[in-house]
Amino acid sequence: MSRFLFHRKRFLLVLLCLVFSGCAVYAGLTFDQLYGKPAPQPRLANALSPQAQYYLTEVKPLLENRCVVCHACYDAPCQLKLSSAEGIDRGANKTKVYEGTRLLAANTTRMFIDAQTTEQWRNMGFNAVLNEREQSPEANTQAGVMARLLQLKQSHPLPDQTVLDHDKWDFSLDRDQQCPTIEEMGQYEQNYPEWGMPYGLPQISDAENTTLMNWLSAGAHIASVPAPDAVTLADVDKWETFLNGDSLKQQLVSRYIYEHLFVSHLYFDDQSYDDKHKPVFFNLVRSRTAPGTPIDIIGTRRPYDDPGVKRVYYRFQQVRETIVDKTHMPYALNNAKMSRYNALFYAPTYTVSALPGYAPELAANPMEAFRQLPVNSRYRFMIDNAQNTIMGFIKGPVCRGQLALNVINDRFWVFFVDPAMADTPSVDAFYQTQAHNLRLPAEHESNTLPIHNWINYAKQQGRFLRAKNAFMNDTFKHGEHLTTDLIWDGNGVNPHASLTVFRHFDSATVTKGLVGTQPKTAWVIDYSLLERIHYLLVAGFDVYGNFGHQLITRMYMDFLRMEGESNFLSLLPADVRRQELADWYQGANQHLSDFLQGDINAFDQPTGVKYTTADPKRELLDRLKTKLAPVTPHRYDFREAPLSAQAITALSEIDRLHGQRATLLPELTFIMVEPTNKTLEPQLFTLARNSAHKNISSLFDEESNRVFANDDVTLVRGLLGSYPGAFWRVKESELPLLAIQAKHLESEKDYRALLDKFGVRRTEPNFWAFSDELNAINQHDQPIEAGLLDYNRIENR
């Protein structure tokens, strides 16, 4: 009888749960009565156990290829980062990281930094997505958010629609995120029956669903990444020894290296890698503990914040998260790199008399904090791996950010001042006299009042530029040395000597080499500019900062962009400089116009370049391209793909799309071409849309500055960017037809017709098979650089 009453009670409670599921409090009580009070569970399985092996070999690959593609980094919906075992157990949080209107800085919620246990994450407001009550098959599948969302998708697959109903489906990045707790799942299922996971994408296969549900039913045991092998650990020991010397010079040099590499994924390239044998990646972190002991990470907001300990140790912490493209910046370490560091920082004769402190006004200004290190050494360190340095402000502390990225054009080329030209005592002395004018907004930390501080920084930048122009007017008197010799040629071997930056609205990409046709603008970067960009947008930027911090960071970057552009313009004749500025800043407000014509454009020495054509800018870019040709990589040249001449011609036609035809396209289109030669694997291409602007000085109304008639595209070989907006799949023999259809795009209806023929939409039944093939090819082609793509921006068209 007691057994009968128990089951009857459970049945009634389940019934009541269904009836009253809209009441979170009552539902919570019901779950507690059914399955007990929630508490974090010991899920981490022994590395050699069957549960761990099942997770690593069967479950983890599924989670990566079906879930991590939307749930990684700060822009993961509901902060649910499924890219690590620890992130899965951490769960979700209703608070958005990207909140551009907050008045006060938010608490940081960085994986592996701000909390070390699931219980600590619970105390920080994270809700479980796995069942944390009674560990039974029933409870694990009924009291777990992940299990319920998977079941919801299986019972309510995507509707049979080519394009999902825009009134029911919101794919905007700032959409209202529901983030239901288990107590709220009943109401969520009633309100949004079609919003199971994966959201807005086809359901996973029955076999995949069975694998995940079996894992969840059995208690969702997880395993962390395997430890590195003995060879890799020996490399770690060698580099930790190198970075933790006791002398003041060693400590200062290591601090400098750390503050520039803390967002990179370090690896040792003394082994060969392919898509099956991947390198082990590490983050360089500050620890309270010395090498040879467990890492005790110092989790400050910024890499130069006061560590609160007498001695800092720089340690290699293994990356435990899935490698995703949007945060992946691989940086190779080897014996040659160590020798290079020695040559840069230890071979020169100089003295470090005292270590700089960590007060914000000092630590946020690298010109002051590291003034004891030779300027030439610092500059060469950064441009040796210039792509990584510039990529830091593209991928580093953020995954997306229109407020930060609408400060740059959609595509531009980057060159660097030859360090040999700047390696003089007078240059060092000039930077020392200007240190007070090179302060950066991060000295105010993460809570900033933007307007008052922006006025002060504008005046400061004006003083610096006037001093710099006076220095340059003397140095380059009568155009002496003001030639293309000023531009670094990579010493004839370094492919980082030129870069192309692509902006994709609120994300961006940096590539080595001069990709695409000549751009509207170009930058020439010297040491002080490169250092300030890094400390403004990487070391000093806080994605959790308040509105003022983020706004003033963006406003200050205006100054730095214009400085880089002005450096490039100085190589042009004086009258052309003014013409180009007028073209680049059409419709700029009076304050900006005064700044351009005054502080930033006061350099009046003639160029030393002898021009022979009526188009000096084109001629200059041609000369620089020829100068850098020996070190310019051709990885992205679509003409080098192993396809027929007819196919390459068709791709060239697509590469020339402009105006309305380009505007209709998404930011990034990934194209898979199936070669006629079946012995070749499918070839991947990216079609990047370049949005044209009158100027890019507008903070909030970017649309008003758009010049749609000047939009164009750049077609490259391989995948470029992290966030595809659309996928096309086409047979090599059909490329001419695709080109014809693309050239006749006039309306949204035309674009949809093109997708009907060649697109792989988010509603395509074979979407996941296509996704797996695309990622596999990318991993095979680029085993070190490739990471999983992000599907949050796939359009619904």
Overall pLDDT:
89
User: Helix/strand-derived class?
Assistant: alpha/beta
Low-confidence stretches: 1-9, 11-26
Proportion in β-strands: 5-15%
Key phrases:
single chain; four-stranded mixed β-sheet; alpha/beta; 797 residues
Write structural notes for this entry.
It is globular, with a radius of gyration of 28 Å. It folds into four domains: 2-217, no CATH class; 227-358, no CATH class; 376-633, no CATH class; 638-781, no CATH class. By secondary structure, the protein is α/β, with parallel strands linked by helices. The protein has 30 helices and twelve strands. Helices cover 41% and strands 9% of the residues. Strand 9 (668-674) and strand 10 (683-690) form a beta hairpin.
Summarize the structure.
This is 9-hexadecenoic acid cis-trans isomerase. This protein is of the alpha/beta class and 797 residues long.
